User: Fold this.
Amino acid sequence: MQEPTDAAARRAVKPVICYPVETLPQPDLTRYAGFRDRAIKLSEVLVPPREAGTFRVPAGGFFCISSVEGAQVGDLNLWHADDLSERFYSGKTRALHGTHVTSGQRLWSCFPALRPMATIVADTLGWYGKDAFGGSVHDVIGTRCDPYTHNLLSGGQYHHCCHSNLTRALADATGMALHEAEGHVHDVLNVFMCTGFTRDTGQYFMKASPVRPGDYLEFFAEIPLLGALSACPGGDCSTVHSSDQAQCHPLLIEVFATPADVLGDWTSPPPNGYDRRHGR
Assistant:
C-alpha cells in the first residue's frame, strides 16, 4: 500500500506518556531499609529446577529471591494471602512503571483493589539498564511459558512449563483441585529474565540472563502475601524453553518478618478509593 503524502508528519508526532506517575504515592525506602535491618528470618524455600514452590510473607515483611548455583530465571505469581481474587496485575504494573521493573518500583494488584502488593527494595542487577538490543531485566511483558502455547506451536504434552509448575504448587499449598488452582495462576514477573522487543518485527525476545550466583531481588510486602515461584525450564533463557533441554538451577526464596514494635504505625495501603458506581 502506498504511503500517504503526510506519512512522515504523522510519524513525527511526539508521544504522550499514558500514565504520568508523579502523583503516585512513593514508597519510603529509607524507612523500609530500617525495617529490613531489624527483620527476622522466618523461613526459606529452595525451588528445584523445572518446579515451583510457594511461600507466605506477613504484611510489613520481606522476601528475597536469589540465584544460588547458576544462571536461572523465575516466574513469580503473588496473591493476597487471605483473598486469592486479589492478585498481581502485570499489565497495570507495566503501564505505570514500564516493561521492566527495579528498585523503588512496585508490583500492583488487580481491580478493584489496585494497590501496591510489594515494593522492590534491592536489585543486584539494577546496573544492567537497557542493552543495545533493547533488552532489560525483570520483565512484566512475558505471560509465562505454558503447555497450551507449546502444544499450539510444537505439539506434544509438556508438563513442566511455568504455568503448570505454578498450578501444581498452588494446588499443593491450598488443597484446591488442580483445575481450580489453574484458574488463579496469572501473568508473571519474570525474575532475572532478560527480554525485550525486536526493533524490526516487534516480537518478544529473550536472551541469556546476566544473573549469577549471589544475585538477588528483594521485596517489601505491602500486604500479606502468598507467592509462588517457578524455576523456568528455560534455565537462563538463552536458547529454548518448554522442554528439558536447557540447563536449569534452583532458586532460593527467603522470608523475613519485621517485629511489630519496629513497624510502629506503618499500615498496609488501603484498597483503591474508586466508589465502583460505574456511572450508575
